Amino acid sequence: MANFIMPNFKIHKASVMVCIIIIIVLSIFMVQDNSLKYREITHPNDIDGIVIGNSHANRILLNSDNIFYLNEGGGVIADSIEEFSYGKSIFPNLKYVIINITPMEMYINQSTRNPNDKKLLYKYGLNKYLNVFESKVTVSFSDFFKKVGAVFFNDLDGRGNKIVFIKNGRQLLDDREHSVDLDWVSKSHYREGLFIPNDKVYLDNLSKIRKIFANSKFKVVVISMPLNYRYITYMKNELNNHHLFDLNRFTNDMRSLFGNCYINLISYPLSDKYFLNGDHLNKEGAKYIKRMVIEKINKCLKPQFNVY
């Protein structure tokens, strides 16, 4: 009897050991994979330029290895300033900055970003998964499993959308297209409690942009990405109804501060099929304008720098 038990026990033990080894190997592979999963800065001395702003910046499709994306703002000038400050502190050879600014940011003075979000974006070495785990799991038992799952399945936005970064920190766009019943004039940037209909807020933000970016020693490129024509019409009406500075005032102010290095694509004519929603391009839209955007950026940066 013992002769039959011992071989089975040995086989079972061997199977368990094989499973443990496989788990360890996969874990090491996940931790060592620097090109995907979490935004990770591995060679800060090689970075010449940064891209900052918000989700619109992900539609600026740059693949240059000497650029790093730090765009984590929620559509707020203060967030972009924070990203700029972070970039200057961690990239000793920084030479230029590419920032996207949307018109409605000028009327927002509070961050839309969770203060803890950025803690899991810039990780180093083998501790990054432990750090992410620690930052995601809270004392709230109700969402414990959801947060644990977010760590291992890379679901960082809490809405079921996987976030993947390439080597230079740019978040890859998914293949989603806009839905048939899309609300083209979603009030995400000027909803109640966020949008402050006061020209003083606009002027305060303009002053910050002038002080921090326009008077910077770094080369600065400002881009206002395309908006759907329905969104633009609604935005203009909102500004007019509140007797605020109009869209022309915004574009003229940006042009006066940054000259030819202000790239105004707000009203760039695009079919609906290239938009994810009223104020964001989808993946195909970003690809469609990619060459044009890169040419305009390089026109500002040359002859010293060149992006691709």
How would you describe this structure to a colleague?
The protein has 308 residues and is of the alpha/beta class. 40% of the residues lie in helices and 8% in strands. It is built from 8 helices and 7 strands; from the N terminus they run H-E-E-H-E-H-H-H-E-H-H-E-E-E-H. It has helices at 2-32, 77-90, 128-136, 144-153, 199-214, 229-241, 247-258, 283-301; strands at residues 49-52, 67-69, 96-100, 219-224, 262-264, 275-277, 280-281. A hairpin with a 2-residue loop joins strand 6 (275-277) and strand 7 (280-281). Helix 3 runs antiparallel to helix 4 (144-153). The longest helix is centred in the first third of the chain and has 31 residues, at 2-32. The N and C termini lie far apart (71 Å).
Which key features would you list for this structure?
8 helices, 5-stranded parallel beta sheet, 308 residues, 2 domains, 40% helix, alpha/beta, two-stranded antiparallel sheet, Rossmann fold
